[in-house]
Amino acid sequence: MAVQKNKISMKNISKTFTTRTGDVSVLKDVSINVFENEFLVILGPGQCGKTVLMNILAGLEQPTGGEVVFADGTPKMGDLGIVFQKYYIYPWKNVMQNVELSQEVKGVDKKTRRESAQKYIDLVGLSGFEKSIPRELSGGMKQRVGIARAYATESDIMIMDEPFGALDAQTRYQMQEEILKIWEKKKRTVIFVTSNLEEAIYLGDRIILLGGSPTSVKAEYIPDMPRPRNYTSKEFLDLRNEIADNTDLAL
Amino acid sequence: MKKFSNLIYAVLPVLGVGALIGVWTILSLQEGTLIPTPVETWERFLVIMTDPISKATLPVHVLVSLKRVLSAFGFAIVLGIITGVLFGWYPRVKALLSPIFELLRPIPPIAWIPLLILMFGIGEVPKILLVFIGAFIPIVMNTQSGIESIDPMLIKAGQSFGCNHRQLLFHVALPASTPAILAGIKMALSSGWMCVVAAEMIAAKQGVGFLIVRGQEAGDTALIVSCMLVIGVVSFLLSAILTKLEGVLCPWQFKKTK
């Protein structure tokens, strides 16, 4: 593999929440390097603080310890592409208006931002649905809007927080294939969070396994398999068992 | 089965209203009662539709009342939404002004009537002001609570896409609270309509509230009851118009019927 350029360094990230019953430590000394244009999967059991880590990465929450260093300078709000688990696309905006929002609030003129948004709507396979409102779309299509909206920020970093967690199994498989196709076409640095082991192995260039309480990095795995990966191949299953043995049960 | 269930739901409301008219008829036929029979009420209604009282037929009285409501309503909507947004979106403005609002809010609008009449006489101004007070309050409260109860992740998502505080208001907070604001406007319309009738009952030369008092002075219970029913019907129609408007303004709230 070629020499990889470091894109983001999370250094000793800790997060403690103060509650009525005392301090709760959620993250402790989480250090993760993210390489440019890699598809990094962060795998951890439910409720382990993955979303907190992503919010810290996105600048939506502050860590109580440690820091996030971006190789190209700390991004401003709107400089990162984020895909949320429950979509959080705006029901009162149609597909086009949702996708173009990040450019619109930057003051990009209508023609330019529409052309750019159209490019990403086409990329995620929603051509023809520009004027549809979210309630007219299926779950998978809503998340396609979420992905197009994240891409439309023109950010080279995509943070995806369990983006397929709310989808049914069949749609989920489709979307996993789809997200790889999109990523192959438009390479970005992707940080993809999931609690689903198969999903992690199917997608990741690297897998960072989180665990423990408070949560820290447990192990790193590199699925050395060509894509598209086969869920039932021996290598896939071996790696699956290896990671499963090392995984905490969901809280 | 579907057809049968449709039929049931078409028949039940008729049955309910029918039962009301039945009970009404029985009560009105008791000896010594002042309650007019439904037939007397209907006949009285037909007479006032064409014969003027105080120089105006019933439709004119209704229009006079409606005009008072609607002219106050425009101001109440604009100022109510602005105030509600200020309270809901700018904590400092809320801290400064909402104590005043909380203090004035529990005063029943009709308690303002004596003061308003002393200050502004018995013309149009005190009536419009009263309707304004009655309509302004629910719009402010609903706008504010609509904005304060937005899913915080919708706000965070907007921030993550680069919206500043003002852009968040227009792209996220206001549209997200449109259903709550419309519910407030609906409440305001019925509250305003009640206020106008109350104001007209105390001092007016025209309007449905005036007609009711005229009925009281003349011992004309059929006139009173027919006006009361007209008030109910008008209020119902206004509310139906707003429900239609809701579908136009917040299409994401309703299933498309194809």
- Uncertain residue segments of chain B: none
List how many beta strands of chain B DSSP finds.
Answer: 0
Q: What is the CATH class of the domain at 64-204 in chain B?
A: Mainly Alpha
Q: What is the CATH homologous superfamily assignment of the domain at 64-204 in chain B?
A: MetI-like
Q: What is the beta-strand fraction of chain B?
A: under 5%
Distance between the termini of chain B: 21 Å
Q: Look up the CATH topology of the domain at 64-204 in chain B.
A: MetI-like fold
Give the CATH H-level superfamily of the largest domain in chain A.
P-loop containing nucleotide triphosphate hydrolases
Placed side by side, the strands forming the largest sheet of chain A appear as 5-6-7-3-8-9
Largest sheet of chain A: 6 strands, mixed
Overall spatial form of chain A: globular
Largest sheet of chain B: none
Radius of gyration of chain A: 18 Å
Global mean pLDDT of chain B: 92
Strand content of chain A: 25-35%
Largest Cβ-defined interface = A-B, 27 and 22 residues
Helix content of chain B: over 70%
What string gives the helices and strands of chain B in order?
HHHHHHHHHH
Tags for this entry?
heterodimer, A: 251 residues, alpha/beta, Rossmann fold, 2 domains, 3-stranded antiparallel sheet, globular, B: 258 residues, mainly alpha, MetI-like fold, 10 helices, 80% helix
Please, could you describe this protein's structure?
The complex is a heterodimer of chains A (251) and B (258). Chain A has 251 residues and is an alpha/beta fold. Chain A folds into two domains: 1-80 and 157-169 and 185-246, Rossmann fold; 86-154, no CATH class. Chain A contains seven helices and nine strands; from the N terminus they run βββαββαααβαβαββα. Chain A has helices at 50-57, 95-104, 110-123, 139-151, 169-185, 197-203, 234-245, and strands at 6-19, 22-35, 39-43, 65-70, 81-83, 157-161, 189-194, 206-211, 216-221. In chain A, helix 5 links the parallel strand 6 and strand 7 (189-194). The N and C termini of chain A lie far apart (37 Å). Chain B is an all-alpha fold and 258 residues long. Chain B has a domain at 64-204: MetI-like (MetI-like fold), CATH 1.10.3720.10. The radius of gyration of chain B is 23 Å and the shape is globular. The mean pLDDT of chain B is 92.
